[in-house]
Design brief:
The chain has 3 domains: 4-61, Membrane-bound Lytic Murein Transglycosylase D, Chain A, CATH 3.10.350; 103-220, no CATH class; 227-343, no CATH class. The protein contains 8 helices and 15 strands. The chain has helices spanning 15-21, 26-36, 137-145, 168-185, 189-202, 205-213, 216-221, 282-286, and strands spanning 4-8, 52-56, 83-94, 97-113, 116-123, 128-129, 132-133, 152-156, 162-165, 234-240, 251-258, 267-276, 306-314, 320-330, 334-343. This is LysM domain-containing protein.
Length: 346
């Protein structure tokens, strides 16, 4: 991200007049400029023909462009009374095989309790697989039975990070109605087996919680980007993502950075990049091991995976307008998940 602003020097301007324009100390402005310009453009006492002056990123005449931070340059998560609709695209790549899933969903804030925010999430469209509405029986059964999950209620912490599913008991109550609708459209051994599989899952709260924890939309929207960014507007975090089928998700070390200025669309920009940072080897992940099979005092960390996230927040509410998340891991073949979320307007 850009670390500075540039002031184009106008005729008659001096170091003092420019520093007054931006409410800066003249000495501090000179020092900042000299640390960023080439030798020929350095200021000794006053301006000597410089055409451009480097300014601190937060030095602007329009103070409305500044992002409203909390203590230690923290972004504050305040979703109270919010309701949003999003278009979602999830792309799953396994080496040369690629599938793209599209749908629309709504997110409604419900309440705040014990430092947790509660949301209701609902699917508001049909499901499209590779640009076509799902029509294969396996895909249709998956889509139809997913209705037992929605509306879904989840809790999220004060950093905007997914905590857990909160309405697990409701799924058992919904299932008889969903099952009845299913048998009106389908019949046969395939449907019987599928229903048995679903019933086994919804009767085990831990199993259904684990299943929903892998929801890529939820894990992207509620990734936990509301951090304290410090004086340099950067922070290093460790986070996990459900890119592989494992109860203990792969861990990534990620550097998040935010721009203290809103962009021309009045959006707050956040970017993050990182690498896999896990003791487990490729073999451990492929065998679904929850921990490294080799115990060492100073383990060599597996960094064969990349992580990237880009978020654009509304400049006033600081709620997500759009997000892009990309996560990869090297297994026997490379696996990559990409998630695109964009707010929908009426």
């Amino acid at each position: 991200m850009q670390k500075f602003n540039i002031h184009t020097v106008q005729k008659g301007e001096s170091l003092k007049s420019i520093s007054l324009l931006y409410n800066l100390d003249a000495g501090a402005l000179k020092l900042f400029h000299n640390n960023h310009c080439n030798v020929k453009e350095m200021i000794l006492i006053d301006l000597t023909g410089q055409k451009e002056i480097f300014l601190p990123r937060t030095a602007v005449t329009d103070k409305n462009r500044l992002v409203k931070f909390g203590h230690a340059n923290s972004l504050i998560f305040q979703p109270e009374n919010s309701f949003s609709r999003y278009g979602v695209t999830v792309t799953i790549e396994n080496n040369d095989h690629k599938n793209e899933l599209k749908y629309e969903t709504s997110v409604r804030w419900l309440k705040k309790e014990n430092k947790l925010h509660f949301f209701e999430i609902d699917r508001t469209s049909n499901l499209y697989l590779n640009e076509e509405e799902v029509n294969e029986i396996a895909d249709l059964l998956a889509y139809k039975t997913s209705k037992v999950l929605y509306p879904l209620q989840i809790s999220v912490d004060e950093q905007g990070k997914f905590n857990t599913v909160e309405n697990l008991s409701v799924f058992q109550e919904r299932w008889p109605v969903v099952k009845e609708e299913l048998y009106k459209e389908f019949e046969g051994e395939t449907v019987d087996n599928y229903c048995k599989k679903i019933e086994k899952v919804i009767n085990e709260p831990d199993a259904i919680n684990l299943y929903l924890k892998d929801d890529y939309f939820i894990r992207t929207l509620f990734f936990g980007i509301y951090q304290s960014f410090g004086q340099d507007y950067q922070v290093e975090i460790e986070s996990s993502f459900p890119i592989v089928n494992n109860p203990v998700e792969p861990k990534y070390k990620i550097r998040l950075e935010t721009d203290p200025l809103k962009d021309e669309y009045n959006l707050v920009n956040i970017e993050g990049e990182g690498k896999l940072n896990d003791e487990r080897s490729v073999y451990d992940f492929m065998s679904k091991a929850p921990f490294s099979m080799i115990i060492e005092d100073n383990p060599v960390m597996n960094d064969e995976g990349k992580f990237r996230i880009v978020a654009y927040l509304n400049g006033e509410t600081l709620l997500s307008e759009s997000l892009y998340l990309e996560c990869s891991i090297e297994l026997e073949k490379k696996k990559k998940i990409s998630v695109v979320i964009a707010a929908l307007t009426d």
